[in-house]
Amino acid sequence: MNMMLPLGLELDGLRSGVLTVRIALTPHEIDAAQALRYAVFYAEMGAQPDAITRTTGRDRDRYDEVATHLVVIDETAVDLPCGVIATYRLIDHAAAARAGGFYSAAEFDLAPLLDSGNRLLELGRSCVHARYRSGAVMQLLWRGIAEYIHARGIDLMFGCASLPGTNPDLLADQLAYLGHTHLAPDDLRPRALPGRFVELRRKPSEAIDARQAFLSLPPLIKGYLRLGGWVGDGAVIDTQFNTTDVAIILRTGQVTNRYLRHYIRPRSEPACSEAA
Length: 276
Known about the structure:
Distance between the termini: 29 Å
Number of strands: 10
CATH superfamily: Gcn5-related N-acetyltransferase (GNAT)
Strand content: 15-25%
CATH class: Alpha Beta
């Protein structure tokens, strides 16, 4: 686990009522985040577990050993391990080097990002417990991410974002909308690996109802786009997780402008803050 924590998040964290967002501090909290990931990705969304994953009831891989785990904790949720109700996995350059590369490199050629000279942060494994899926919880997660990137001087965030299902023809409107309207600039544009490339622009732009296509996207992808996010070239089918993945790229200024201005406290102030 990456123990170089941003000031504040390793203490009381950012609070909203009974909810707190901070970095997971103990192996038990990381295990709780992995249990939540299993419940959402496998039990709920139909991902295909291997024998170890099924036996342990945990979504784990080698990146968990080097990543920083952002968690939202409900201090009243005594039925959930450590009260963890939401999580995000964060991997910076140093962590990726220890793991032999970024997770997304298994699906996308990241050379444009790696060669850009920007300080990078990979976002992944985002999920929220079913009974806590509200804008308030996602706002709290993003407040935590905003403080993290502010403390670390991150320039660009990226990662794989998923649409449900593995038939791209059934996702033609959404994929084409992304490919026609939100393609990343050439110098920052990852591309799906040759053996896994699925064309985004499956329809001409004039054949798409852009508003409806946007509204039908998963909430997380809509959130990235609202913050000025782009997508890479091509999608990738992930049969294990029963998803179609796109690469998301986001300049951190879009996040810090929205969240730091309102929520990041001066370092002399207490760790608690008002709800979003």
